[in-house]
Amino acid sequence: MTLKNRVRKTILAAGVLAVTALPAVAGEFDGVTVNIMTQTGAIQEPLQRRAPDFEKLTGAKLNIIAVPFSDLYQKVLTDWASGTNSVDAAVFAPQWMVDYVAGGYLEDLGPRIAKDTAIQWNDIAPFFRDFSSSFGGKTYLVPLDGDFHMLYYRTDIFDKAGLKPPTTWDEYLTDAKALNGKEFDGQKVYGSCIAKKRNAQSYWFVTDIAGSMIQSKGTSQGTFFDTKDMKPLVDNEGFRKALEFLKESGKYGPPDELNMDVSDTRPLFVSGKCALNLDWGDVGVLAIDPKTSRVIDKTGSVLTPGAKSVVNWATGKLEACTAANCPYAIDGVNHAPYAAFGGWSGGINTKAKDKVKDAAYAFFSYLSQPAQSGVDVTIGATGFNPYRVSQMTYNDVWKNSGMSKVAGDSYLGAIGASLNSPNMILDLRIPQNQKYQQVVLDEAIARFLAGEIDEEATIKTVQDGWADLNEQIGTADQLKFYTGTLGVKR
Amino acid sequence: MSRREATTQPAPENPNRMSVAAVARTETTTPESRDEWLDRNSGCIMVLPAVVILLAFAIFPLIVSTYLALSRFALVGGSFKLTFVGLYNFRRLLFGVQQYHLLGTFKPFDWPEWLAFGVFAALMLAWLVRYAARAFTVLGFVGRLISAGLATGLVLAWLGTLATGAYEGTLLTTCVYVVVGVLVQFLIGLGLALLCAQPIRARNWFRVVFFVPLMVTPVGVAYMFRMMADMQKGPFAPVSTALGLGAWAWATQAWSARLMVLIGDTWQWTPFMFIVLLAAVENQPRDQLEAARMDGADAFQIFRDITWPAIAPVAATVVLIRLIEAFKIIDMPNVLTAGGPGLATESLTLHAFIAWRTQDLGGSAAVGYLLLFVSTITCVSFFNYVVRWTRRHQ
Fold first, then answer.
1. Which chain B residue has the Cα nearest residue A434?
2. N or C, which end of chain B has less CB nearby within 10 Å?
3. pLDDT interval class at B5 (50, 70, 90)
4. Nearest CB to B358 within list A83, A439, A449
């Protein structure tokens, strides 16, 4: 089935189900205009596509304003903080919620959610419902997406080469090296494809690797800072190994990998040019699009690899996994699947007019309801990945999307395994986390990969940069926020 | 002003007219005096909208950004707070934790760097002494002192980073874009202008074609170049593969990435040079050209002795305009490489933009001001030492 057909089917299904599912009634929002800001491309697509249906159903006019991802945090914050308030609602990273809530810009959606049966709140996986969308005991966001980093591999290539998907980062490098440059189905493949461009997503991938060596005693241990004193967990052998991994994997990747973000690596994997790839859930559904994919039923998904030795926080040295230091190890390997980004979610400006807030909420609810979201998560172009319990098992919607049972079980199995991992890494959610990651970490990684600074200088830059931010913002306050978010019960 | 003088100070040699005017004034009532007031102040009234717009859109932001450059910005509880920090943002960029970003990562000088620096400093000193000895004015000397100071500073930064194999910051990267870019664009533009001034076939068609890139928005040009410069998937992939460049990753090496930015910038801005220089070339004195040809002068002699002197003032002016514009380059490096690899292609404007995006409004304004100082000093120096010189020697 083509993407167009699937989209058509989606709209039809939405039309039929919306009447029964929508909390709003026809014409309820006549004359109401809602300005919603989000990122360009994926995420913009489902919002833009579903807006006309919602307008027909409720009368609300929706303006979807799309800006590049790197500008989104700043644009929303500036608009709300400066009192311009031209943006009534936004779909953004739950990580940033902490800054928006601190300024008092986000509407508490708890009462609306409590009254809304159509959203089927309890169908949303507890992690996204209780952690991603909540802060300080209040619910500020409606989840629209579920985010985990996973490992994708070419099942056909691995079978032919007699290899099993890597479970450790060392195996990843060995496999990438062995497969790089080999010809399969008439085209040469790259051993590994990872987005490493500056000002893009590279900083999340370094945490994938470092995290699996730094965090081994469960989610609440954390991977970014020492929970005792907020000391950055950077100057250790795990982080060093992660830097070495990023550089080494580049040898088995596309020549211009340093200038690739996920919008470059995804088409590359889907066009059959990568044996291994690290990414969010998007690749799994992009791989089933018959229009663009050459890897239908050739894509396997597994937990992100892990490590057989983990960092002793006291010494900074790597120590072999034992039952004591790696209680959640699988076959002696410590995995730490990273809930990177946390899943795109919708929040509403508290300064918007009441009717506008209601319309914005109704739209987010409409998008999140299983009738719509169940289909949207099967379409690669949406940028939305499974986040509801009903989406985590292979069903007719997945079948209709063109995903085979084998591919579905592999893909949904990897998401489920990540979500249920007791050692899942929570993304950084302290005030101004964007500066820690998107500024300090991203720039240091970019300079390291470009050869401008060596490993030691990179470690020092990140360590000093984070410590400096802690000091500027207040180490004690940041520590409170950090330990507070880690104490989440899932 | 002259109008007011004309009405309030009537010519004394014509007493009759004065008395008539006086009578007229006493006979007039309120409406006439309003007209008179309007008449007297029409100059100011006419200028007022322009002044208000200038104050609102140029001077006011300039003052606000000065304050921002001296402050730390923070969002607090539904509003924002500006804390005055003096020159902290500038200190941080020039001498502090952000020095690597603006100026680069310095390595200690060895003797060749010391020698080169010594020679350059001596040249600057000799230039100042020569000026002081020949035609000294205080303003002229201070201006030259500022120009020499900036040039010496840039050479110092260049020797301490690029020349020693270390990494330079956004200031020198911008200077590379400005100097190399403007020079190449000028040479290509001049070449095309000279060609299109010849009586060749499809002359007008060429003129339009050469002018088109200037009409395209810079972001569009940048995206187009990003696609075209893709050695693996781009439209020229078969060519680059045939040439053995398929695996060449220009974006991963500092100088090749800068080269690609320069190629894109040159493609976009050469037409500007071309169109202005073409007008200048076509306006050169025909009689002199014909006389030179009659006397058997060759093409180079004609260019050196007739064309170049005729177009030099225009050439200097167009280079000046382009210099001002070139300092502001942002779209090309932002779209092509997002400033990477590392910091290699990041210009000062992109530096300021990235700082702004991370809410470091003070740091962003400070970078903006440093760019303003560097570009103003460079352009004023160029105007004084080159543009005026060519006008004098026309």
1. B358
2. N
3. very low
4. A439
User: Is B325 in CB contact (< 8 Å) with chain A?
Assistant: no
Is A88 in the same domain as A156?
Answer: no
Nearest Cβ partner of A452 from B77, B342, B359?
B342
Nearest-CB residue to A259 (from B78, B252, B358): B252
Which candidate in A452, A453, A473 is best for mutational testing of the B interface (most B CBs within 10 A)? Answer: A452
Cβ of residue B357 closer than 8 Å to a chain A Cβ: yes
Mean pLDDT of A155-162: 95
A121 with A159, same domain?
Answer: no
- For residues A459 and B297, which has the higher predicted lDDT (pLDDT)? A459
Check residues A234 and B59 and name the one with the higher pLDDT. A234
The pTM of the whole model exceeds 0.90:
no
Output A302 or B207, whichever has higher pLDDT: A302
In angstroms, rounded to a whole number, what is the distance separating the alpha carbons of residues B312 and B157? Answer: 32
Q: Yes or no: say if B348 and B371 are a contact pair by the CB < 8 Å rule.
A: yes
Q: Which H helix or E strand runs over B265?
A: helix B254-282
- Which fold does the domain B167-392 belong to in CATH? MetI-like fold (1.10.3720)
Q: E-strand spans in A227-358? A: 274-279, 299-302, 309-311, 318-320, 338-339, 345-348
Taking the Cβ of residue B80 and every Cβ of chain A, the question of whether any pair is shorter than 8 Å is answered with yes
In this predicted structure, what is the pLDDT of residue A187? Answer: 86
Distance, in angstroms, between B356 CA and closest chain A CA? 9
Kindly determine whether residue A74 and residue B357, on different chains, have CB atoms separated by under 8 Å.
yes
Of the candidates B322, B281, B311, B100, which has an alpha carbon nearest to the alpha carbon of residue B196? B281
- Which residue has 């990235």 as its token pair? B354
Domain span at A122 = 3-140+345-382
Cα separation, A205 vs A427, in Å, equals 12
* Any A CB within 8 A of B248 CB: yes
Q: Which two tokens stand for residue A219?
A: 């989610």
**What value does the mean pLDDT take over residues B95-121?**
89
- Reply yes or no on whether the pLDDT at A490 is more than 70: no
Residue A279 within any structural domain of the chain: yes
Note whether residue A361 is domain-resident: yes
